[in-house]
Amino acid sequence: MLNSVYLSFGSNIGNRAKRIINSLVLLNKQGVFLKDISSFYLSEPYGYKKQSLFLNSVGLFECEYLPEELLMILKKVEKLSHREKTFRWGPRTLDIDILLYNQETTNEENLKIPHYDMNNRSFVLIPLLEINPEICDPISGKKYKCFLNKIEKTDIKRVILKERVKDYLGEII
Predict the structure, then answer these.
(1) Which DSSP category does 143 fall into?
(2) Integer-rounded Cα radius of gyration of the chain
(3) Tell me: the pLDDT tens digits for 60-106?
(4) Which end of the chain is more exposed for a tag (fewer CB within 10 A), N or C?
């Protein structure tokens, strides 16, 4: 059975767009198949502010993996992108988070689905809603656009249109 999964991507070190594109290719090779991708957005850092702007995107994927298995694959892809743990909300070559997995919830120590703080992050909600404007939070049942209306949106700017991202990806999607 294929599971429907939304993943978020962020990078603020090196060639950010190339890192995200490469991660999409690596995920495809691991059986995590891209079905749709948002535009790429520049955003202010979240949490720790004294660092470079982030490039962010959200993708819709299908895979056969359980959430814990998927998380291991994501960590492997981050490592292949030379991700090093520094400090919370610090700079990173690549960050991939599981936002949603079907309409299921998980509340494990190392894995929270839906993502524990996505309702407060415009750099997650804006690209997510670009892919699926009617998507709902599996816990509250509220549409995510309701959460977006309650948070600051001035810290995000679309820089690479969805169609251009799809052009870069060629045959994957």
Answers:
(1) B
(2) 15
(3) 999 999 999 999 999 999 998 876 667 566 688 999 999 999 999 99
(4) N
Partners of 5 in the β-ladder: 61, 101
Q: Rounded distance, CA 163 to CA 4, Å? A: 22
What's the pTM value of the predicted model, to 2 decimals?
0.93
Phi and psi at residue 93, in whole multiples of 5°? Answer: -70, -40
**Cα torsion 15, 101, 130, 157: sign:** negative
- Domains and their CATH numbers in the chain: 3-172 (3.30.70.560)
List active site positions. Answer: 83, 92, 95, 97
Q: In this predicted model, what pLDDT tens digit does every residue of 75-88 receive, in sequence order?
A: 999 998 876 667 56
The two three-digit tokens of residue 85, written as one number: 């743990």
